[in-house]
Amino acid sequence: MDADLLTEPDDKIELKGSGIIAAIKASGIEFILSVPDIVTSGGLLRPIARDPELKLIRVCKEDECIGIASGLSYCDKRALTLIQHTGFLDSINAIRGVAVEYGQPICMMIGLLQHDPYTTPRNSPRYGVRIIEPILDAMGIPHHLINEEPDVAKIKPAIDDAYAQSHPVALLIGRRPSAS
Amino acid sequence: MMKRDECFRVLARHVTDEVIVSTYSSAVDWLHLGERTLNYFSVGAMGLDSSHALGLALGRPGKRIICLQGDGSLLMNLGCLVTTAAAAPKNLVHIVVQNGTYEANGGHPIPNTEVDFAAMARAAGYAHVHDFSQLANFEQQAAHVLKQEGPVFATLHVEPSKPLTYDYPNLYDPARRKALKAALQSS
Predict the structure, then answer these.
(1) What is the tally of structural domains in chain B?
(2) pLDDT at B159 over 70
(3) What CATH number does residue B169 fall under?
(4) Shortest CB distance from A102 goes to which of B58, B79, B177?
């Protein structure tokens, strides 16, 4: 079995990748724009790559996703940017300009690398994770933590609202989704 | 050596209903040739013009998308060459205007003014790649370049232009974005 298909060995809670993907599809998402992230690799990106209902665009660097998603939105096409929190940090200027200042519906699903899913992101053992929500707050970007099965229900309303009101949104993946 | 505004006048003779994505000096020179609803200037961050163009091309495969990108912008997003070639939109023409400078940021040179963008695009896998240094040659080939099955890449080697006035509030006017979106979603 590939390493990215394993959940964390001590994690007793399952977050099903299939449920997240179903919610993504129910949100009208047609394009997935992604740089691989080990948190979402096995449970989301691999099955998305095999899914004929979703068009996966593999990009070289995360900020490309922001431009591509913007171009797609002008054509009334919905996209989800699937990246790691490090890629989010690397893309801040693009998100600032395109998503926030131009008010574009940029929807980001962000894996929290090396986060402890039994704590909140603000209390994460990883500095890079602890700063994510404060940065999103400072930028005025709505965000939702997807950490347990009931959280999956937040995905569709968040994406629908982003497109209806033309603003960005961040969906933070707190634990490795399973491949089931 | 060619001049950017001369090259754009040549392009304009062949442009009808294509979406033109451009920023900074290229946007100023392109807009100088006339207002069009199908101009896309609000790229938000330097280097992303080519990524916006890819999104448009994927979202509207039946419409021709032309990106007029500066060399400094492409250097900030070189990975886009590989992404675009892999996505392989047949309706995308990616033109890089190489003047060797960050013209909108004081005219300082790019790190290597001799960098060969056409070779990079060819290696990345663009379907067709062109490199123009003579205006007469570009005039002769322009219509062909714009109609080829993409992704098409072309470098235009130009000299730095005279100082330009950058009217960013006008270029980035939200009304332009609204009109463009309406035009793309209704046509």
Answers:
(1) 1
(2) yes
(3) 3.40.50.970
(4) B177
Instruction: Look up the domain containing B28 and give its range.
Output: 4-186
CA dihedral for B145, B146, B148, B153, sign (positive or negative): positive
What confidence tens digit (pLDDT) does each residue in B84-138 have?
A: 999 999 999 999 999 999 988 888 999 999 999 999 999 999 999 999 999 999 9
Selecting from B44, B174, B177 the residue whose C-beta is nearest the C-beta of A97 gives B44
Contacts of A68 in chain B (CB under 8 A): 51-52, 54-55, 58
The per-residue DSSP string of A57-126 comes to EE-SSHHHHHHHHHHHHHTT-EEEEEEEHHHHHHTHHHIIIIIIITT---EEEEE-TT--TTS-GGG-SS
How large is the angle between the packed helices B4-12 and B24-32, nearest 10 degrees? 50
In whole angstroms, how large is the CA radius of gyration of chain A? 15
Instruction: List the one residue out of B53, B114, B121, B111 whose CA is nearest residue B86.
Output: B121
- Rounded distance between C-alpha atoms, residue B17 and residue B146, angstroms: 12
Which of the four pLDDT bands, split at 50, 70 and 90, describes residue A11?
confident
What contacts A154, CB < 8 A, 6 or more positions away? A144, A146, A171
Q: What is the pLDDT of residues B28-52, one digit of tens each?
A: 999 999 999 999 998 889 999 999 9
From chain A, pick out residues whose CB is under 8 angstroms from the CB of B52.
67-68, 70-71
Tell me whether residues B58 and A66 touch, CB distance under 8 A: no
